[in-house]
Design goal:
mainly alpha, 139 residues, single chain
């Protein structure tokens, strides 16, 4: 009787070993799958952060575009401001041209005075040489 019982115990042991191996393989497979899912979750979290950042940028850009539309939406106001600026710049230009002409006149007068002083100085130097040199104009 021992041999059939022994055989039965060995068969049962063999069966339990196979079940244990299957359980270990299943556990290993589940660990790998868990790791894959964690990696996927990290990627999803990263994508979520990127999407949030991009949405924030798009919202900011949208707000800027709305402000630009309001700013340039009224073409009449823009034209009026441009005309005012053009008019102001024309007045400044005319004023500066008058100043330029006046400065040219002043510079020309100063140049004439300078030439006159220079000529007078040369004349004085010539007379001084004549007076000191006894009338000899040898240079």
């Amino acid at each position: 009787m021992a041999p059939p019982r022994l055989q039965h115990a060995q068969d049962e042991l063999e069966y339990k070993k196979m079940q244990l191996e299957n359980t270990q393989m299943t556990q290993d497979r589940l660990k790998e799958e868990l790791q894959m899912r964690r990696t996927e979750l990290e990627k999803i979290d990263t994508l979520d952060d990127k999407i949030k950042a991009e949405l924030a940028q798009l919202a900011e850009k949208s707000e800027q575009l709305r402000a630009d539309i309001e700013k340039f939406g009224n073409v009449g106001d823009v034209r009026e401001k441009a005309e005012e600026t053009r008019s102001r710049l024309e007045r400044m230009r005319a004023s500066l041209l008058k100043r330029k002409d006046l400065l040219r006149v002043i510079v020309a007068e100063k140049a004439l005075k300078h030439q006159a002083k220079k000529a007078q100085l040369q004349e004085n130097n010539l007379q001084a040489r004549r007076a000191w040199g006894g009338g000899c104009e040898c240079a």
